[in-house]
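Quick one: co-fold with 2-acetamido-2-deoxy-beta-D-glucopyranose.
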Amino acid sequence: MSEAKTQENGLAVLAILIEAGEEINQGYGSIFNYLGHIRYAGQKVAIPAFDIKLLLPDNLSQYFRYNGSLTTPPCHQSVLWIIFNERVKISHSQLMKLQTVLYSSKEEEAEPMALQDNYRTTQPLNHRTVLSSFIPVSVKIYTAGEIAAIVIGSLCGCIGLAVIICFIVKTIRLTSSWDVLPSIRPAPQPRLQDMAKESKEDVALKTTTNPTKPEEAAPQPET
Ligand SMILES: *[C@@H]1O[C@H](CO)[C@@H](O)[C@H](O)[C@H]1NC(C)=O
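Sure, here it is.
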């Protein structure tokens, strides 16, 4: 393995995508049941023999294949990846166990480091060919007319979006410039004067209406 992992086509990996479901997977249980014995880095445990086929999905004829790399440093490009199309299910509790029981640190270390989220993120395809042993249902072959329609439609959508974004950016610039440069804010006086005028008008209105009131309120001559 140590020699093969640096060579082109040195390793082949069977990869299985796993989903969490309701039922306990007895096949994976053959491994998971012993995790408690190897909680810390470097620990070993012997487990009873079991049928390794229990780890694989039922349908082994549908798979993807590509030349890729190891998922851990130094990530040599030495792996022929074989990824099965059918997924395997383990229970939520089994997944929880896998996520919480193990540490990446040694037992003697003072602060244990949980072995979690240590996956390598998806890498660019870099013009690799991904082969499939079957025609995936999600792959739809479009006609030239459909492709033209999609391209033109997307272009129009992009232009529309660009116009909207330009408009929003301009609006934001206008509003934010008031905040950044208070010197170009309109002088507050005219508004105050307006308000003063308004209140004067109010007063004027009130004063003009006032004289009518005393008339109403004026004592009527007795008849
Ligand atoms: C992987 O690379 C080898 C050459 O090194 C080539 O023969 C093979 O077809 C490639 N496999 C895939 C799945 O692209």
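If it helps, Residues 8-9, 65-67, 129, 131 surround 2-acetamido-2-deoxy-beta-D-glucopyranose (CB under 6 Å).
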